[in-house]
């Protein structure tokens, strides 16, 4: 017992010491590669800053976050900020699910206790992960989630590795269910504004161009965004059509059909789009073309999202209301007409993931991508965010690790 305690104390000291020496004064860990630099923090294994030079050579910080690592634990009103939701991303209907005839109840932390969101009130993006490795261009976080935490069955060990290569952010996530069968679904909950809030003409992202070339369908949801089991068509020309051609996020934002599209009384997007590549036959996600693209004419920055995942959530920051501050690295200090906050539609969240709440929709037959146990393969998520600036960057390069 004593030996074990001493060992753990020594290990903690080593990790702590290594961590401190690698952090900047704001408690952030920096990694970089040609054309791209990013900061990460242990809280939620979150990205806190992502810098690229725009087409005029001006450096822009294009993701939301806070100025320092300690503030994430203090201001919890704006959670999921660039973090990894877990152990099960998005919503769980009624906070219940069944595995092999056993019903489990998870912490209901949304809609006054009606459902679970992002793994409960102590989900993975509310916790400090361990920094397991940190080099000039890569950082790896780990977390151990014990049996019964937030109501989920079984111990889970997980890691998230972020790596930068020229103009590219690589994400690799893995999770192993050690003792019991359990739902696992992870994602990266990054909020984007490709202008770094420095476009003098607009503080929002409605002028960002977005496309989902494989997403002719989406998951139907009720008024509080819980899937009802049906799959809806995104008819050509409809507000949810981002597949037939790229379109600005704001193109249809004033149309009557958009009211209720992101829940009761909500105008905008908070939808799980299906990534349907079945007709492609066997494909390599790294070369098959992006599942989503987002770009801004103002900054000339474009991000193409490549992933092995079969769904894609897009949220147009409908609930932002000016209470979330931007960072010191964003916006203007000399324009008093522009408050230093995120306004409604000020950002876009893009989440690669599986079909949401499929643990409560067995007829979708996605249990192998949602339920993991000691006898199954581990959970894996891979993605690459490839950037081009003024047409140059990742697409003209080899991005394999
Ligand atoms: C932006 O350009 C400046 C000047 O060339 C350079 O020092 C900086 O590293 C660049 N930023 C990024 C993110 O590459
Ligand atoms: C951390 O950032 C927050 C929000 O920007 C700020 O209010 C706070 O003073 C900062 N704390 C430290 C220790 O720098
Ligand atoms: C996470 O770490 C920060 C330091 O970076 C610390 O201020 C905070 O209290 C920790 N939060 C939790 C939930 O452990
Ligand atoms: C909802 O969850 C509660 C436990 O939190 C359970 O008693 C109830 O049966 C569940 N309702 C449905 C319709 O599954
Ligand atoms: C930005 O807009 C403000 C007014 O909103 C104006 O005073 C300022 O001159 C503009 N700056 C640029 C660089 O256009
Ligand atoms: C939106 O983009 C178009 C060009 O694509 C431009 O004409 C317009 O001024 C932009 N609007 C804002 C508010 O930036
Ligand atoms: C704005 O949003 C914050 C965070 O979601 C919330 O706490 C606050 O009540 C909202 N304020 C208004 C005026 O709606
Ligand atoms: C305000 O600051 C921006 C950079 O943040 C700069 O481009 C602009 O010229 C400044 N405007 C004035 C009037 O100083």
From TrEMBL:
Lineage: superkingdom: Eukaryota
Signal peptide (UniProt feature, chain positions): 1-22
Sorted UniProt keywords: Carbohydrate metabolism, Isomerase, Signal
Protein's UniProt keywords contain Isomerase: yes
Pfam hit, one: Aldose_epim
Family in the record: Belongs to the aldose epimerase family.
The protein, known as: Galactose mutarotase-like domain-containing protein
Organism: Phyllosticta citribraziliensis
């Amino acid at each position: 017992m004593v030996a074990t305690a001493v060992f753990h104390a020594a290990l903690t000291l080593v990790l702590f010491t290594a961590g401190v020496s690698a952090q900047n004064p704001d408690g952030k860990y920096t990694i970089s590669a040609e054309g791209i630099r990013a900061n990460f923090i242990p809280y939620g294994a979150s990205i806190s800053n992502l810098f690229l030079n725009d087409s005029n050579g001006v450096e822009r910080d294009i993701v939301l976050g806070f100025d320092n690592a300690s503030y994430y634990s203090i201001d919890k009103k704006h959670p999921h900020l660039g973090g990894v939701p877990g152990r099960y991303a998005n919503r769980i209907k009624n906070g219940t699910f069944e595995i092999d005839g056993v019903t489990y109840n998870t912490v209901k932390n949304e809609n006054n206790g009606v459902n679970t969101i992002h793994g409960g009130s102590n989900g993975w993006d509310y916790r400090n992960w361990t920094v397991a490795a940190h080099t000039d261009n890569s950082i790896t976080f780990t977390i151990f989630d014990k049996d019964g935490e937030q109501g989920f069955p079984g111990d889970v060990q997980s890691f998230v590795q972020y790596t930068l290569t020229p103009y590219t952010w690589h994400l690799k996530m893995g999770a192993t269910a050690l003792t019991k069968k359990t739902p696992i679904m992870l994602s990266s909950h990054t909020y984007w504004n490709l202008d770094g809030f420095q476009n003098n003409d607009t503080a929002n992202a409605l002028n960002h161009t977005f496309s989902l070339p494989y997403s002719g369908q989406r998951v139907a949801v009720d008024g509080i965004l819980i899937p009802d089991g049906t799959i809806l068509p995104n008819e050509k020309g409809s507000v949810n059509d981002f597949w037939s051609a790229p379109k600005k996020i704001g193109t249809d934002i004033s149309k009557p059909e958009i009211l209720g599209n992101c829940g009761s009384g909500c105008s905008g997007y908070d939808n799980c789009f299906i990534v349907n590549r079945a007709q492609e036959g066997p494909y390599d996600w790294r070369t098959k073309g992006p599942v989503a693209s987002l770009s801004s004419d103002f900054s000339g920055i474009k991000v193409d999202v490549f992933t092995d995942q079969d769904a894609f959530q897009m949220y147009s920051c409908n609930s932002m209301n000016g209470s979330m501050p931007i960072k010191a690295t964003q916006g203007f200090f000399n324009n008093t007409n522009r408050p230093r906050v995120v306004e409604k539609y000020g950002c876009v969240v893009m989440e690669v993931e599986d079909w949401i709440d499929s643990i409560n929709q067995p007829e979708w037959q996605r249990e192998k991508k949602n339920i993991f146990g000691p006898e199954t393969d581990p959970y894996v998520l891979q993605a690459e965010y490839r950037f081009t600036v003024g047409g140059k960057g990742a697409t003209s390069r080899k991005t394999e690790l």
